[in-house]
Amino acid sequence: MSLEEIKKRSRSLFERFEKIEPRRWTVEGSVMELATEVGDLTEVVLRKEYYKQNIYEDLDYQIRDEVADVLFVLMRIADYYGINLDEAYEEMEKLVSDRLKSRGV
Q1: Which of 65, 74, 67, 68 is CA-nearest to residue 30?
Q2: Taking the model in full, what pTM does it have?
Q3: Which of 21, 80, 92, 95 is most buried (most C-beta within 10 Å)?
Q4: CATH superfamily of 3-102
């Protein structure tokens, strides 16, 4: 499945959420939600890597869930700005590869 397909599938979930949430999500709200979700992911990774005491039953599941939450919010932001994620990723990948080549790797 491509990133664009994931974005389209996510869009239908965004539209369903809009029917029950008290306020329509703006892109600014989505960016704040992204920060929240990254914070949640950070918390679980810190517990998995023994920086904090574990309070979860299944940390691997929690990490997977939080990564998916981050991806979901990123899809909302990309959708708002009309970003073709497949193209954007390919461009980023080429830039990174070129930088690495210029450093001999």
Answers
A1: 74
A2: 0.88
A3: 80
A4: MazG-like (1.10.287.1080)
